[in-house]
């Protein structure tokens, strides 16, 4: 059952990814953000995280084999610190990065975590990368991915700092809500006898999703 769910996720990405942008913002949300106040930015930040499938796939990979809440908190905090730092730095500091390339690396982050989960690096290269450092570094990349979209908006400079901080708080709230749902689902799954048998196949599908996202974003970069 679980593997079928992962297969559906992969098929959806294959069919829909050419028309989707993980950090895309609708015209209505764009207008809402450009005219809105702090609560509008808070809401849109939370909405971005809850609907940001690349972020969610990465989070699933990060917590896949974490059983203690203390460990989950450590890794999610590292991701949040990285995500927040580059979001604020990118928008407020005016640091521009190509959106396609950033989103391509975000796709690779999903594939990397899935490969890490199945011990591929240790088997292939005889080394185990520092997982905490990797989560922090990829968190920095995910934050730049969001920043590239906000930089396209005609955001007024007065009150911009407070609005971006409010948006970032919304992102973290959305991450907390999404994480709660993921953890509940994982807790039930781990109690089943099939979890260990399905874990490897699920990470293979997760890895494939990451490479699919990488390929589409890279194609977009070269085609445009």
Shape: globular
Major sheet attributes: none
**What number of structural domains do the residues give?**
1
Instruction: Specify the number of helices.
Output: 10
Give the rounded overall mean pLDDT: 85
Percent of residues in helices comes to over 70%
Query: For the CA atoms, what is the radius of gyration?
Result: 18 Å
List the helices and strands and how they pair.
Layout: H1 2-16, H2 27-35, H3 38-51, H4 53-63, H5 69-92, H6 99-117, H7 120-125, H8 131-150, H9 160-190, H10 195-223
Helix pairs in contact: 1-10, 3-9, 4-6, 4-9, 5-8, 5-9, 6-8, 6-10
Structure write-up:
The protein is an all-alpha fold. The protein has one domain (26-223). 79% of the residues lie in helices and 0% in strands. It is built from ten helices and no strands. Helix 4 packs parallel to helix 6 (99-117). It is globular and about 55 Å long. The N and C termini lie far apart (39 Å). The mean pLDDT is 85.
Summarize the structure.
The chain has 224 residues and is an all-alpha fold. The protein has ten helices and no strands.
């Amino acid at each position: 059952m679980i593997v079928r769910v992962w297969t559906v996720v992969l098929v959806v990405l294959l069919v829909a990814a050419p028309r989707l942008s993980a950090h895309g913002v609708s015209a209505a949300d764009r207008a809402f953000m450009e005219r809105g106040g702090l609560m509008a930015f808070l809401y849109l930040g939370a909405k971005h995280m809850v609907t940001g499938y690349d972020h969610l796939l990465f989070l699933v990979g990060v917590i896949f084999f974490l059983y203690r809440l203390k460990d989950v908190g450590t890794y999610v905090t590292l991701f949040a610190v990285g995500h927040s730092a580059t979001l604020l730095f990118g928008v407020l500091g005016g640091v521009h990065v190509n959106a396609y390339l950033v989103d391509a690396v975000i796709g690779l982050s999903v594939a990397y975590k899935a490969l890490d989960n199945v011990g591929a690096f240790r088997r292939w290269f005889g080394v185990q990368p520092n997982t905490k450092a990797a989560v922090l570094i990829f968190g920095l990349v995910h934050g730049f991915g969001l920043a590239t979209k906000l930089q396209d908006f005609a955001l007024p400079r007065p009150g911009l700092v407070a609005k971006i901080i409010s948006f970032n708080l919304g992102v973290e709230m959305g991450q907390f809500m999404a994480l709660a749902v993921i953890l509940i689902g994982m807790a039930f799954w781990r109690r089943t006898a099939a979890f260990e048998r399905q874990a490897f196949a699920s990470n293979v599908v997760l890895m494939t999703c990451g490479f699919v996202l990488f390929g589409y974003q890279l194609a977009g970069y070269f085609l445009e």
